[in-house]
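New here. Invent one.

***
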Amino acid sequence: MAIIRRKFLKRSAATLGALAIGGAAPYVFSRNIAKAQESDTIKVGILHSLSGTIAIIETSLHNAELLAIEEINAKGGVLGKKIQPVVEDPQSLVQVFAEKAKKLLLEDRVAAVLGCYTSASRQSVLPVFEEYNGLLLYPTLYEAQECSKNCFYTGAVPNQQLDDFVPWIIETLGRKKFYMIGSNYIYPKETNREVKALLKKFGGEDVGEEYAPLGHTEFSTVINNIAGSGAEVVFSDLVGDSIVAFYKQFKQFGFTAEDLPICTPITTEQETAAMGPENAVGHYTSFNYFQTVDTPENQSFVERYKAKYGKNQVTNAVMEAAYFQTYLLAQAIEKVGSTDTDALIFEGLPGQEFKAPQGPVKIDEKNHHTHLWARIGKAREDGQFDIVWTSKDRIRPDPWVDYLYPNKDCDFTDPKVMERVKKPWREEKNRSGTIDL
């Protein structure tokens, strides 16, 4: 495996040399990155919304990454240099994410970017990272079916969240009739497609499916539709401010978790605090991490986070991934002794491990995704979650779940894969008509 990567790096170096003759942008960018990192600091971009409808959750990712950088710098930094965060606020606007990503790469010359939250924002920036050979670390759970050499994914993919959750709902809760409500973009639509495949596999039933625009906060019609559908469970992949509005209105309509539980792969402690815990009590979330995880690493993490940002602050799964991915990047830079993008992509980040608050995690050597734990939590009156189920071990990521994409995976240790992924995955997906940004 290491031999394959070394051979690929040699080919990459030869390719860059050839590009240099023609003055191609990727070569100029790589050269300028190397020059920029001759300074006393290593610049790292932080690209999360601090305003707009998604700021309710993205601010916590931003905070977690800054905490990790502060801790790393306090221990001496990386390669004897301090990490310098370069912060941009894309304002929850998809088009602004791409603009800010380009600025971070071409003007600020950052070594890597820690960023994005929604799949729409990630999709908007990936062409920028691919064109200029930049490096993105993405901490959010997502729908998978993606293979970009310029991105490392530290959030969950469906086989780490849905594969155990959906059958657990059917078998443990005894709820077979699912009504799906999501925000109108790729993640909820693709997630619900995977949920429907699992319903078919485990004897469940889809009794309704609706999508609301990002930031939508009026759900009376949707809730009336749910009430008349015969649903036994609501499967929600709403995001941002819509989560808060939906849960509040759901309770106002008289629904309780005992009558009609909401099960979700995306509602965290952050949203339950914002909506008021009384609106979330008894509902379920599937995640890799909850603040109530009982590990020494988590207890210390929660204490340090609250000490920095306030005793009333809560931790959550996506910001936990944002936190540990910052350490994984620092370890990768130390390993290769450089901020060279290709060195980090093919030698530094694959196989990196870290004792995260959720438990030991690891970047898969082949597919750029992360081995994570799986848990199911039941919301409590204090806004925290009782963990009612935990996987026996961390779960290897499968970006293409077998029940939809048998025998498909991505192996960046295989040079042949590079030919297969040269054509952007976005073109194939757009032709399928499944994307609505």
About this structure: The domain at 2-155+295-372 is CATH 3.40.50.2300 (Rossmann fold). The longest strand covers residues 205-212.
